[in-house]
Amino acid sequence: RTMKMTTITKAVYDKMIASKKARNIDDTSYYGYMYSVASKADKDGEDVTKAFRKEIKALKENVQYARSKTELDNINYQISLYDEFMPKELTDEELDAIIKNALVGIEVIPKNRGLIMKTVMSSVAGRADGKRVSAMIGKLL
Question: Between helices 7-21 and 25-44, what is the axis angle to 10°?
């Protein structure tokens, strides 16, 4: 049984093969790991960008433990490789429009904050951080 490879997984695979051919050992290793993360997400029916977001979060947490400039640069480089495959962040204006649209039919009272958050987050689809969304909704309540 063959697994359906998502567009992102295929793109990561192509980058891995290209870096192998270019004999770029570090990139081959990074893309190889990214490919395994993406493949596992595909296999589990999880969104690849969600899996990548977890990896980016872990890398950002590792920044504080970097013992040298080289190690820090390495972590930031890995984050940049993931960022290449992530959806673009929404601008404040775009996010504001999504929030206003989500509020249609929902009474804007603190009690409904959870419902509003849930509605907005499903529309945002990983293009804005939950903390940012929560802060913007907080201003309305």
Answer: 160
